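Lab notes, practical 5.
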Amino acid sequence: MPTGYQQQMPFGTAIAADGSVSFRLWAPAARHVELLWSAGPAQAEQAFSVHRANEGWHHLTLAQARAGDRYRYRIDEGLAVPDPASRFQPEDVHGPSQLIDPLAFDWGAAEAAWRGRPWHEAVLYELHVGTFSASGDYAGVERRLDHLLELGVTALELMPLADFPGQRNWGYDGALLYAPDACYGPPDALKRLIRAAHERGLMVLLDVVYNHFGPEGNYLHCYAPAFFHPDRHTPWGAAINLDGPQAQWVRAFFIQNALYWLEEYRFDGLRLDAVDRLIDTSQPDLLDELAARVQAGPGRERQIHLILENDHNDARRYERDSAGQPRHFTAQWNDDLHHALHHLLTGETDGPYQDFVSDSGTSADPSPEDLTTDLIARALTEGFAYQGEPSAFREGHRRGTASAHLPPAAMVNFLQNHDQAGNRAFGERLHQLIPREALDAAFALLLLAPSPPLLFMGEEFDAERPFLFFCDFGPELADAVREGRRREFARSAAFADPASRATIPDPNAPETFNRSCLDWRWLDHLVNPSIHAERPDGSQQRRFRACQRWLALRRARIAPLIPLILQGGEAVVFGRGRLSASWDTSDHYRLRLMANLNAEPAELPSTLEPPRRSALILDHRPDPESGTQPTTAAATMGKRQLAPWSVQWSIEAYRRTKCATSPSNQSPSDAMGQ
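Output from the prediction step:
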């Protein structure tokens, strides 16, 4: 007997107990709607007039319809369009929708007992289904689940799956938000992947996009123009109408979509993309209403985690209740920490990195006043680096709110993600931009910090292949996307002339997509050396083993502390890339970091004491012969000097005393001219 799950919603189709199917379309601008139905792709379509009801709704019940049938709607005797709440589009965004019975999939008895995992255990792994494996589908991801489990990952984060035009796309051009794209496999294959992940104790989160629709394949403007606000725009097109006339059904469309992924597909959480582009003056606004509906729905039975990408740095979204649980959203992607670390490690100053440039300049500068490191320390211990200060990248507008009261679990930290690689002209990964010892130190900092870490696919083995921006639009739109992307880079000195911009890969070329696919031969060779004649050089395995060791240490020593860290920590900066940070737990333990992210050794200031040997859980220093080896004892213990690119983590009992904020007695706000 199947044990499927179904989200009851006003949009789309529903199969009744007697087998009949109800079809529901919100089309307030349509005078007459017809259902074009066929019993299969080779069958002729039959037309049925759809009843027009109140508030722009159109309803029809069809007794002969069955799961697997195809259907679409004809608007005012003209354009035929797919269902905007279609559960599957086997012939892509312009084709008919397929009727899916969500109750037909057998999840098995074990799924009913799945309650998710607590957030303090989260180690996220972001991946793009199409480029993660050679097969480019859900089954390809499923085949690598044991690799991720062995690494120490506890949560997959899938880039958007909503149906997009063509066969290749990052997913942020979704046109039909309820239909997982057919190029990755049918809906049941996605459910099999999630079931397999849950059987291994892995959470699965989904990236969703509610701030715009893709530029091709969305027909809502033809029959439901109320979806869009006539006076507001985003960088990707018309803004969504969340607070104007008829907005209640627009809001319901997105809220129901979130519940749909969590209920029917059993996702353990969602990451909402670029919510700063949602303009909504309602009270409550869409985000608060969505969070409340999730908590009152699937959140009552399972641990559901809602993550935001939000350039506004709005700390209110992540407030905790008296029990330490999120009132609205679980966490935010911490772009501030990424940008500050990236500038420190690479020296790059283009785009958003300009907000993290220090006047002190070089790595050899002994001055303790270093804005870049101040901002790294602030983002590590308080969440946001920008908490109301003016941003040069945003033309001097102030950005952010105070966040030191939030626990570190309210931030997701990362060294790379799809944006930070793919929005580079050539998709380089961080290990291709900086020395190995610098990246080792950055990993030692990231993977043991109390905020949940996120790895981007391939990062755990220093993948050599880039992650490029790719898509598969029709000819006219393809030309516009290619030239538009190259114009974006014209502001960079490296691409000031047309000849250099012409070398930027064409997003629509199949080769651009192919170059972005991960190469797993290093791992396959370890399992079966006869598979590939060329022996891997060992660098991939070295990175994997280092990440694996640090994540095991995180699981054993750091994760149990995270629920007990109820607010931000404190930091001391004593030079460029040199900092100490600490977080206190409610049971009087202190997690402490000492880091020298610098190519020169560092002397500890007199205000700081080195960690005691018994408290040290990681003492990482570069080992030029054997590579990164975390240890718990060091020849330098008791001395006041930190080796280049060294990271120490310690845990010790403490008595409540107030730390100094900085040897320079200057906060980041002072340095930024607040």
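Observations recorded by the TA: Residues 360-366, 626-638, 659-665 have pLDDT under 50 and may be disordered. The radius of gyration is 26 Å.
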